[in-house]
Amino acid sequence: MARSSYDRDLTRVVTLVSNPNEVTIIIPSLDPTDTLLHVVTELIGSGFDDIIIVNDGSERRCIGYFETLEKLDECTVLTHVENKGKGVALKTAFEFFLRHRQGKLGVITADSDGQHMTSDIVKCACAMIDTCDPVVMGVRDFTGDGVPARNSFANRVTALALRMLFGVKLRDSQTGLRGIPAKHIPFLLQVAGKRFEYETNMLIALELNRVPFLEVEIETVYAKGDMYHSHYRPLTDSMIIFSRIFRYALSSILSFVVDISIFWISIRFLSDYFGSLDILFATVIARVVSSFINFNANRSLVFMHKEGYFKQLWRYYALACVIMLMSAGALWGFAHLSGAVSSAWVLTLLKILVDVTLFSASYYIQRIWVFRKIKGI
Predict the structure, then answer these.
(1) Cα dist. 377→110, 255, 282, 310 in Å?
(2) Which residues, 6 or more positions from 149, have their beta carbon under 8 angstroms from its beta carbon?
(3) Could you give the dihedral angle defined by the CA atoms of residues 102, 103, 109 and 114, in that order, rounded to the nearest 10 degrees?
(4) Of the candidates 203, 173, 175, 178, which has an alpha carbon nearest to the alpha carbon of residue 188?
């Protein structure tokens, strides 16, 4: 999905003040400090009059902050008795928004740790009001001085992986400052994830559903001490984010092992029945079994689709047939050129080389066609 950028001055603050009912601010919070009160006070001062704060199971010593905010007319405090994770906190706020904020344009999600400047939240709100359809992403610059090395590294690695594996082309994939139009929220409630991985799963799901992104440049704020107290753990939580990639790898390895095993068995014990077509038939038998396993694993664990099973199934097998014929054709050509037609082990090794080559092409087509939702959200 092609990304675009947005750069605009803050004169639109006047518009926000005169139209305060257009946007809802959502702030998930766990064990906040005084910074949360500062953030909310500045937001109210900038004209926002609908702020949903989610207390995600904070410690008892922090309850006073939420009690103070609950007394403000502009604030609604939703409470989790125990910590459930940022993903669940966002879903709680999304559900409340859909039930009680009909007619609003959308939501702006922001962090409670002070890393999002009020002016940047205003800028993202303006961008969402202007464009209506894209999901607005407040992107930070990780190349400047003062950015912790582990944060910069984690963001770069995640952004690269999302681009290569899922086509998500964003410079800052871990930003919590996002503007989400109301029409996308019902769909996002179906996205899997309980903690920080939910924000990444959101991006993948939006990309698969052809929802455009709009990047807005924001300040990159990091400081020492409690002023910017974040529960995000760059390395640990990046591993959680990469769990989807690991699931795809495991799915591929499992189906690959099944495919190679059945191919070898077919060549070893059934070649006399197939004659000169033994490679083709062995490839077909192996691919039918392994592809069915791979389809269901990818659908459920990687792309996480719940609807359109048979439509995706026929697309998958249309692709599988093409890949299978290319694999069999290439293998047949290599085998005859190398004179290794009679060796099951050599043929199997050649098949591994061929299938590894076709692996990337197969994944790319699955992402952009097989598991991409065709109709709108």
Answers:
(1) 24, 31, 41, 19
(2) none
(3) -110
(4) 203
Strand segments, DSSP code E, in the chain are 4-6, 23-29, 51-56, 75-80, 106-109, 135-139, 178-181, 213-217
Q: Alpha-carbon distance 119 to 303, whole Å?
A: 36
- Report yes or no on whether pTM surpasses 0.90: no
- DSSP symbol at 82: S
Quickly count: other Cβ atoms within 10 Å of residue 224's Cβ: 7
Domain ranges of the chain: 4-241, 245-370
* DSSP string across 296-357: HHIIIIIS---S-HHHHHHHHHHHHHHHHHHHHHHHHHHHHHHT-TT-HHHHHHHHHHHHHH
Residue type, 60: R
CB 108 within 8 A of CB 128: yes
User: CATH classification of 4-241, choosing from 3.90.550.10, 3.40.50.620, 3.20.20.140, 3.20.20.10?
Assistant: 3.90.550.10
- Tens of pLDDT along the chain (377 residues) come to 445 555 544 444 444 444 656 899 999 999 999 999 999 999 999 889 999 999 999 999 999 999 999 999 999 999 999 999 999 999 999 999 999 999 899 999 999 888 888 989 999 998 998 888 899 999 987 666 665 666 666 677 777 777 777 778 888 888 889 999 999 999 899 888 888 788 888 988 898 788 999 999 988 775 544 344 454 555 555 565 566 667 767 887 888 889 889 988 888 887 777 777 777 788 888 878 888 888 888 777 766 666 678 888 888 888 878 887 888 788 778 777 766 555 677 777 777 778 777 776 777 777 677 776 543 33
As a whole number of angstroms, the longest Cα–Cα distance in the chain is 82
Beta-carbon count within 10 A of 359 CB: 13
Distance between CA atoms of 101 and 94, rounded to whole angstroms? 10
DSSP 11: G
